[in-house]
Amino acid sequence: MNNKYIIVNKTKILEEIEELKASLNYIPESYVAKHLAQIYVYEQVLLRSTPLIPENVKPLQELVDEGYDPYDSAHHLQVQKMLKVIENYISNLKLDI
After folding, report:
1. Integer Cα distance of 41 and 13 in angstroms
2. Residue 12 host element (H or E)
């Protein structure tokens, strides 16, 4: 059997978990187990997921917000190093989960 992979939206899954948890307070008792099972499955998906881009790499937008100047050689080197880290991370990414 060939391995197949998917890309998931972590933010959307976290939002869904929060909605499910919030709904536990007002749903009928007969639906609680189903909601808890859905929360568990979503949490397991996140636990077993591997980020495509390392979470310790600062997004480019943050650099811009902090005053990134593409003509400043120090800033340019910082971005080049960050892009190299991302490139190495992605090329070494192991998806055998």
Report:
1. 10
2. helix 10-23
| DSSP designation for 26 | T
Two tokens at 70? Answer: 């593409």
Coil/strand/helix, residue 88? helix
Task: Output the pLDDT for position 4.
Answer: 73
CA 6 – CA 29 distance, rounded (Å): 33
pLDDT one-digit tens code per residue, 4-48: 777 888 899 999 999 999 999 999 999 999 999 999 999 999 988
pTM exceeds cut of 0.70: no
Question: Tokens for 96?
Answer: 């055998």
- Buried (b) or exposed (e) across 44-78, using 16+ Cβ within 10 A? eeeeeeeeeeeeeeeeeeebeeeeeeeeeeeeeee
CB 44 within 8 A of CB 13: no
Instruction: For residue 89, give every residue at least 6 positions away whose Cβ sits within 8 Å of its Cβ, in sequence order, or none.
Output: 53, 54, 57
